[in-house]
Amino acid sequence: MAKRDEVERETGEAILDAAHTVFLRRGTAGARMQEVADEAGVNKALLHYYFRSKEGLAEAVFTRAARRLFPPVLAIMGSEAAIEEKVEQIVEHELEILSESPYLPGYLMSEIHHHPERLEQLMSMTMSGVSPAHLLPPIVEKLRRQIDKRVEAGTLRPISPEQFIINLIALCVFPFAARPMLELALGQGGRGFEVLIEERKRTLAAFFLNAMRP
Amino acid sequence: MAKRDEVERETGEAILDAAHTVFLRRGTAGARMQEVADEAGVNKALLHYYFRSKEGLAEAVFTRAARRLFPPVLAIMGSEAAIEEKVEQIVEHELEILSESPYLPGYLMSEIHHHPERLEQLMSMTMSGVSPAHLLPPIVEKLRRQIDKRVEAGTLRPISPEQFIINLIALCVFPFAARPMLELALGQGGRGFEVLIEERKRTLAAFFLNAMRP
DNA sequence: ATATGGTTTGACCAGACGGTCAATACGCCG
DNA sequence: CGGCGTATTGACCGTCTGGTCAAACCATAT
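Predict the joint structure of the above. Result:
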């Protein structure tokens, strides 16, 4: 271990951060190893020393990004909270996190389209002992029972848990994926977009829950 | 004009089709001019003869794709139909067109993120005599009046036309943008996704309109 | 038949890019 | 201090890629 490790961040992580920035800005195929090196302030050869190849680096960036975005959503979905609370928590959390890294949805969608193998690898990876592939079904089933109970009580519209999740995430994520278009359409050079998102933070949960009324 | 022009398609358009296929499959940055040439069955130099550069070809592909996707939506939004009909028409039209070209949303989102200048150019382009930039505001205002009238009559929940459009498009488009993820999560190797979309064709309009109830 | 103009091609080029390697710098330990 | 293993660097390489160009092609007009 070098002395600097205690003061500066681990070099590998600094490279990963730089790669994250560059890969999200240019896209994986459009990103250049030299640009990542410059962004990290290190020699290009060092990227290969730590991550073997561009492919290796891309994989690491994708995995870390996915692990930061998805688990919180799954945690909320699988919690003991009432449906109304879950919706409000998801909306608040998603809109918050996406406001901070607006390129994230576009990057992830592009990656899963052009490199679906990354997703498969991610699903079979172990996180805290279990693979996401085995984590998802119980959450969906739990949500299904929760919905069905409310449907029987006549306080909720029938809907499959899959469609429930997709609709909710769609409403949260889409504006960020289409952000440049909205900024242009709304005018005011991006200010219009911010206003729109602020309004969504206040109204989206109510809109969605209204759709769920019987 | 060559004789073949009467039998075969215009060469330029054949190249554009091939570029569309390849650019959507690989992404603009990941696409190779040679692969486009192979797909079109012509020499690589021909691509430059017709489109000058890769950038020129990318611009042409983007413009054509955007012109095919957006105008129908605007036409429906700006029509005289009642709100309920508009929602049903948009859902049906979008889900239909996206089922046929599933890579389209991902491609467009990636492009507008990495090349926002394409979007600006598109907005200032003339289509049938008018630029999209001048086409949008009247449609939005018309929709606003339509919504306000229904709100006053107490048959609709208050919502801005911008949020209305975004929510509707989000629910239609997002599943396709996230398609590889959903195919993996739903299992059955893509069959699950098709089933999901079929269900959405039947239920999405009702879901959305339910959200709009006062 | 031959000239003409747009179309299509194969060969080629310069630069960019991912990747490698031997040499150097550096912190640590005996 | 001196040796050792890791970290870091600059120089270099082979290949890929976008782009160019002169030559060949081909339907038509004269």
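Chain B has a mean pLDDT of 93.
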